[in-house]
């Protein structure tokens, strides 16, 4: 599966569940109103695991899907594929890495060049990379306050690690479900040392600002004597929206973190890129945080494969996601559902949200039945919103290589089949 361990120590299971869902995976089953059945104890855990096994079996057997998540594949198959492919991106007759040299150092060099930075450092998790980056910037600016969105990853998925582990505090320029504007950054009532921008903002629907809005936000932070750090876990797929190369987008910031498992199908791992002095300090803090891992060549190999094979395809995924999103909206508009939302429309990346006015259990049952009965997996996991609004659910749609095969007509037909099962279950 994806790197569900990318959470700080002690992270609540629900947080790990939500982070895993970036690939459509969900490790718990929802009860009638979307509650986590694990709260019911061992019996709930068994029910959740049975539901997960059923979903995985249905997804794996489906002939038509939007994405083939690497976590769906058995370990043996992934290992065999890695052994077969690794030689195409690195000399596998070389010795494995030791504490970050060899192939890990080569990965750092390649990513630094891609992002247009002079240096980069590999981390086992993105959570650790960002904790270290923000801590280092706090020391350099003399201000331990970080301005970021309340839906940003450190606020939602890291169990308060910024304050508990790193001694930092946060302020929010806006609560709107979008990136903060230049005006909001300028009007923030107290000083801050670092502005952190998550591009795209996943929990708001994988949303991005316009290029001019992004430049203005960065300029506003500079006017406040702050540095800018970009949470670029999914930065790889932002180039079509901004119509700029990666290096130009990343170059707006003082430092950038990127992930290898979210869009590039890597096993795990992340890189923090920035000026050499920051990167060298980050290496020291990586050791202190427990990230000086003895050997990481499997993760590094899959990262290199992702850069070689997946990165060039991402623009085509983004383009087709817009086709899929339009067809989904048309399909729901023609159906008997009382309300729906595709957000954002059009999508800013190859991932977006779909909202429906039904409880998660109804939609999850309809989704898995459609996959089992038609071999077509249109949606993966539906969840209740964080606010816990009863009778409302959302899912995240990812369009990857298998999704390119779907025509708009086929999407609309699949929506009709899905809605039929929803109404049957809801009646």
Automatic annotation (TrEMBL):
Keyword Transport attached: no
Compositionally biased intervals (Basic and acidic residues): 12-28, 35-46
Pfam families according to UniProt: Beta_elim_lyase
Cofactor(s) named in the record: pyridoxal 5'-phosphate
Entry keyword annotation includes S-adenosyl-L-methionine: no
GO cellular component, one term: cytosol
Keywords: Pyridoxal phosphate
GO molecular function: L-allo-threonine aldolase activity
Similarity comment text for this entry: Belongs to the threonine aldolase family.
UniProt cross-references to PANTHER family, sorted A to Z: L-THREONINE ALDOLASE, L-THREONINE ALDOLASE-RELATED
Protein name in UniProt: Threonine aldolase
Organism this protein belongs to: Streptomyces scopuliridis RB72
Taxonomic classification: Bacteria, Bacillati, Actinomycetota, Actinomycetes, Kitasatosporales
């Amino acid at each position: 599966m994806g790197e569900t361990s990318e959470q700080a120590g002690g992270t609540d299971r629900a947080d790990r569940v939500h982070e895993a869902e970036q690939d459509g995976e969900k490790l718990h089953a929802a009860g009638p109103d979307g509650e986590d059945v694990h709260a019911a104890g061992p019996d709930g855990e068994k029910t959740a695991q049975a539901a997960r096994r059923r979903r995985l079996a249905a997804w794996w057997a489906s002939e038509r899907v939007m994405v083939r998540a690497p976590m769906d594949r058995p370990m043996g198959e992934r290992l065999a594929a890695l052994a077969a492919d690794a030689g195409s991106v690195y000399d596998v007759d070389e010795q494995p890495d030791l504490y970050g040299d060899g192939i890990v150092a080569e990965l750092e060099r390649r990513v630094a060049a891609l992002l247009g930075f002079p240096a980069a450092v590999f981390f086992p998790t993105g959570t650790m990379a960002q904790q270290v980056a923000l801590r280092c910037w706090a020391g350099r600016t003399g201000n331990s306050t970080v301005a970021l969105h309340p839906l940003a990853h450190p606020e939602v998925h890291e169990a308060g690690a910024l304050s508990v582990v790193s001694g930092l505090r946060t302020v929010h320029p806006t609560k709107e479900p979008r990136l903060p504007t230049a005006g909001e950054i300028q009007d923030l009532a107290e000083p801050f040392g670092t502005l952190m921008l998550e591009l795209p903002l996943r929990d708001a629907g994988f949303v991005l600002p316009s290029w001019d809005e992004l430049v203005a936000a960065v300029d506003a932070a500079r006017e406040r004597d702050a540095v800018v750090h970009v949470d670029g876990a999914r930065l790889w797929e932002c180039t079509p929206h901004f119509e700029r190369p990666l290096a130009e987008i990343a170059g707006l910031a003082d430092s950038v973190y990127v992930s290898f498992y979210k869009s590039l199908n890597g096993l795990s791992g992340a890189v923090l890129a920035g000026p050499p002095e920051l990167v060298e300090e980050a290496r020291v803090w990586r050791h202190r945080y427990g990230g000086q891992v003895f050997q990481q060549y499997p993760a590094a190999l899959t990262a290199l494969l992702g850069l070689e094979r997946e990165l060039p395809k991402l623009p085509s995924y983004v383009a087709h996601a817009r086709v899929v999103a339009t067809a989904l909206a048309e399909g729901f508009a023609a159906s008997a559902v009382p309300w729906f939302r595709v957000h954002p429309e059009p999508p800013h990346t190859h991932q977006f949200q779909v909202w429906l006015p039904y409880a998660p259990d109804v939609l999850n049952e309809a989704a898995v039945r459609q996959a089992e009965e038609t071999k077509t997996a249109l949606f993966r996991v539906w969840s209740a919103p964080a606010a816990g609004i009863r009778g409302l659910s959302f899912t995240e749609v990812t369009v990857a290589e298998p999704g390119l095969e779907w025509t708009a007509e086929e999407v609309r037909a699949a929506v009709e089949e899905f809605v039929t099962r929803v109404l049957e279950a809801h009646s």
